[in-house]
Amino acid sequence: MSYSKLIHEYLDGQLNMVREDVLFAELAKNSDLRVEFNQQVQLQNVAMSDMMTISPPTDSTNAIFSS
Predict the structure, then answer these.
(1) Which of 39, 19, 27 minimizes the C-alpha distance to 6?
(2) How many CB atoms lie within 10 A of CB 37?
(3) Which of 7, 46, 57, 60 is 20 to 30 A from residue 24's alpha carbon, by CA?
């Protein structure tokens, strides 16, 4: 089982409860996986923060919504 994939699914809000239980059970006993999980959370937070600072040009937005 790819725990990295489970982490990504969890962060994307796409992990069902059974697989979430599997992920968190493994996180409880695997310190390397906890490090990876924390790094992925930090990366997602940085990406989300960066996305909030980006605004597309008004002309482009208008062109998209008018077509």
Answers:
(1) 19
(2) 21
(3) 46
pLDDT tens digits, one per residue of 2-16? 999 999 999 999 999
DSSP label of 13: T
Round to whole Å and give the CA distance between 25 and 17. Answer: 12
Q: At what angle do helices 31-53 and 3-11 cross, to 10 degrees?
A: 30
Note the helical H segments in 1-67.
3-11, 17-29, 31-53, 58-66
What is the reported pTM?
0.74
* pLDDT band at residue 52 under the 50/70/90 scheme: confident
